[in-house]
Amino acid sequence: MADYSNKLYQQLEQETGIQTGYIRTGSVFLAQTQDRLISLKRINSRLNVIGIPSEIISPKKVAELHPFLNMHDLVGAMHVPEDAVVSSADVALALASAASQNAIVDPDGRIYIRNWQGGILSGGFEKNPKPIFTEGKNQLEIQNLQEDWDHFEPLLSSLLRRMPELETLEIMKLVNCPETFTPDMRCIMGESPVVCGYFVLAGMNSAGLSFGGGAGKYLAEWIVHGYPSENVWELDLKRFGALQSSRTFLRHRVMEVMPLIYDLKVPRWDFQTGRQLRTSPLYDRLDAQGARWMEKHGFERPKYFIPPDKDLLALEQSKTFYKPDWFDIVEAEVKCCKEAVCVIDMSSFTKFEITSSGDQALEVLQFLFSNDLDVPVGHIVHTGMLNKSGGYENDCSIARLSKRSFFMISPTDQQVHCWAWLKKHMPEDSNLVLEDVTWKYTALNLIGPRAVDVLSELSYAPMTPDHFPTLFCKEMSVGYANGIRVMSMTHTGEPGFMLYIPIEYALHVYNEVMNVGQKYGIRNAGYYALRSLRIEKFFAFWGQDLNTRTTPLECGRESRVKLEKGMDFMGQDALLQQKQNGVYKRFTMFILEDHDTDLDLWPWWGEPIYRNGQYVGQTTSSAYSYTLERHVCLGFVHNFSEDTGEEQVVTADFINRGEYEIDIAGCRFQAKAKLYPVASLFTHKRRKDDVELSDLHGK
User: Is the Cβ–Cβ distance between 583 and 553 less than 8 Å?
Assistant: First the structure.
């Protein structure tokens, strides 16, 4: 959005005839620490591949660009020569004057500096912001607040440390104005989930001018066409629910968000405010056993479990772009999932029930979902909920509970979006009942080869594949508890079962599972282990790998689409055309070859992918595979014409014939591309040194 805004502002003078005074100024982003420099290197890699010139420069080069800056504490910087700044007051007319030299951003010092109308303009994002609510007040009354020099003093001190010669200059004015911030540092955009046709664009997090042009473009497309030209899920209003509108929550969260604008954010960082808002009934039990938590849509989810012999404080403070301190912990959890049995609390997943008195539930769902749901009672179907373009609005699993009742399981952050989509496309006068039952069920994922033994002993029923086949659902008794929905799937490709437990039975069932499981080596596990397992099995997740502009044909899920069954469903026409014309991107698995896990920077997500030296896409998710003993990255490969840059059809042959590299903060690592998981390595225990090169080439 920033790139589009920059280009729009640059062209505005020609299109409107209004003198804008737009001048390309450039920006320099300073790094006082090696971690900050790594962060800038990661950003630099992404900017270069999307056509925005930038480079990492030395402190000496910074001094050449800005001789008045204090360089003693700098380790490097990123220079973006075509960046620009403008006056927000005059943008409504066209644009007004901008700085004439490189602007300076010093995130470690929490300040920015630029020329302004013959002088210096500087501001920043303090560590202790003061929240203000405008409800019930005239906005003009708070347009300019009273000067607060004590509050501004840390930023002023940082400015004077960076440019000591400013101490001799006069400060003309301290401007103190309110600004809007959102709970996750991303703006809010899109159609309201409760009022059809009501669109929102707000909460720009002090980047309204930078993102305004691009945000306006996408919102206009959304209003006119029904969808934007790019995936904007991370900005979609429906990523939030009513739980994020609490005034207390907002007050505490925005006080954390504003300093985070300039804080260094290493991979897998978590918000600290607004926590323990939504929890499983097992939260206290798991917390007492060493669970460390992450938050998704306000729901607490275990990342991993710290053994009693580990230094908790040291682990909590470990934040790095390199090998993390939780590596061995997650390795033990993954090993247990593969060799014994683990329990993961997955209660945060969105859960809906769709029922009708007649056949309408099946008829409506058959149109809204890409896979065939007319299956025998008790069967589970993995399917996409597609839009007219064939893109994934949701990726879910649906169990047929009866002829007229279905149980739908979706990603955690789908709770508002999926509900709004279903309600929008369901007949208004139908006898269809849609119920959100997320809060009614605790979900336990029982993973591993000994899961069948644990569940058989607790249910007094045979749970082998002959009696309980894959993708099967049945209500059973577990311990003393009745009505447990047991499903033979794990979301990882490993053997095991999902248990959907009425919340009043949750603690009892968990305790019984853990007690019986002791003889089978049971232990708790978290989402980091789940992530490693699903990525090495080449499983795509919605919101990370799949989005509204990804189709089943692009990610190898043709088998989950009923194209050959003569049934009409949303997105069918787009998929038929795509099947005829070919796809322009393909979901691909990459196994890093010359990457040293202990010494090299890790891939996390968003790393550029190169094929034969040419940029072809970015990674969407990454994890270390404890089975392959290598890093695995997932991402989409494109085929850009070397002459025009236009996208061309991507075939399996195009994928297989390329030589690939993954760019991690400017350093490229060789990688093997695969369109299928390395199946042989998951059925035979052997070290990577024994793996023949041919096994990694795949089809």
Answer: yes
